[in-house]
Design goal:
By secondary structure, the chain is mostly beta strands. It has one helix and 15 strands, in the order βββββββββαββββββ. The strands form three sheets. Strands 2, 9, 10, 11, 12, 13 and 14 form a seven-stranded mixed β-sheet that branches. The longest helix is centred in the middle third of the chain and has 6 residues. It starts with a strand and ends with a strand.
């Protein structure tokens, strides 16, 4: 898997960024995991866009909230020295999600759930709620027609 050099800039441990080049979801904050399977150093590595490798120190499921909608990512790689949490477009589309980029926004949709993100410095970020349920990007929104639907990626 290749992670572009842009992913190595401007760290943010609680936001998620949409990446069309990443072949897996990747997180740098171990606290994002709801389940966790530890990996030994050297057991699994990812190739970075700056021609370096990083060790994967764990894998499992992460959960976060976007405007009250629970999002669960499966088989997320824990790579503590990556500086952005990445959501893989290829993984999403393989699971039936539609991703579209329009007017500096990213739209991710499956069934009745629509998540919107915004372009920030040539990348697209999602509006993740913090622990106090306050949206990091107040100008983003999520619309759902069925609030009991749990979004699994």
């Amino acid at each position: 898997m290749t992670v572009s050099k842009a992913m190595l800039l401007e760290p943010s441990s609680n936001s998620w960024w949409i990446d069309s080049a990443a072949t897996r979801h990747i997180v740098q904050n171990k606290d994002m995991f709801v389940d966790f399977t530890e990996k030994k150093v050297g057991e699994h590595r990812i190739y970075m866009g700056n021609n370096s490798y990083s060790d994967v120190l764990g894998i499992d499921n992460c959960q976060f909230s976007i405007n009250g909608t629970s999002i669960v990512l499966h088989d997320v790689l824990y790579v503590p020295n990556i500086l952005r949490n990445l959501i893989s477009v290829p993984v999403l589309t393989q699971k039936g999600f539609e991703i579209s980029l329009r007017f500096n926004t990213v739209l991710i949709k499956k069934r009745s759930v629509l998540v919107k993100g915004v372009r920030v410095n040539d990348m697209y970020s999602l509006p993740i709620d913090n622990k106090n349920k306050v949206c990091i990007y107040d100008y983003l929104s999520v619309s759902i027609s069925n609030s009991s639907y749990l979004w699994h990626l």
